[in-house]
What we know:
The protein is α/β, with parallel strands linked by helices. The protein has helices at 4-19, 23-27, 88-97, 110-123, 160-170, 196-200, 209-219, 236-242; strands at 78-82, 102-107, 128-132, 145-151, 171-185, 207-208, 222-232, 257-266. The N and C termini lie far apart (49 Å). The relative contact order is 0.16.
Amino acid sequence: MNTPEELKQIVKDKYTIIAEQPMDANASSCCGATSCCDGTYTIMSDDYSGREGYAPEADLGLGCGIPTDHAGIREGMTVLDLGSGAGNDVFIAAREVGPAGFVIGVDMTEAMIMKADENKGKLGATNVDFRLGEIEALPVDDNSVDVVVSNCVLNLVPDKARAFAEIFRVLKPGGSFTVSDIVVDGEMPGHLRGVATMYAGCVSGAEKREEYLGHISSAGFTDVAVPKEKDIHIPDSVLQSELAHLPADQRTMGAARLVSVTVRGVKADRRIGG
Length: 274
């Protein structure tokens, strides 16, 4: 079993490759892990085109939802995108907050920050800032953000409880988060948890739905809701390829079901009503 630091390095290495390859290579793979699939499988099927602020050059085809659709972003807000990649959700949010608002993107991969800054320059975006950092220790001040969004990233964070605690810390009282992510319904076979390529492909890092939602409640969020979800099917050919080192009877998800969920929660304003 890999340590948390080893898992982070695996993710950094994989997403450095993703940052440097064309979008079509990412879109035809699971979570952009090009060694993962044969082009017939993708969970990245949500289409951003047509939305205000959409920049195709910033869309690496890595999301499992469109969290900005459910985030309630308004003009003048400060928005934080976790695992911002090349800036896709950041530029969508930047259009929604307008010139009076501001959007911060945080990513732990240097190559992604470089790509995002390059896109920022091309687009002439003046109300965005990309910062190198980890979700478990965000380079963002306490109580400074109105809305947090994230798209298919928290499943890659080893300490999800800490991640949601950090989201709570940086949100203003009354602020909210909306994240699209992958969870598991049922029991995932234990041997999959140690498969590094499946982790970087957004599969083995996924937690059971009740555990994932439990982290959110434990962090202090209220009004937690799941406005959207969809099943994810991994073809047997993908499992056979990625798990080739395991015995044939272990190359399966068993009774586990992968689900893409969009989750929203609120940091209650305790000042209201005394």
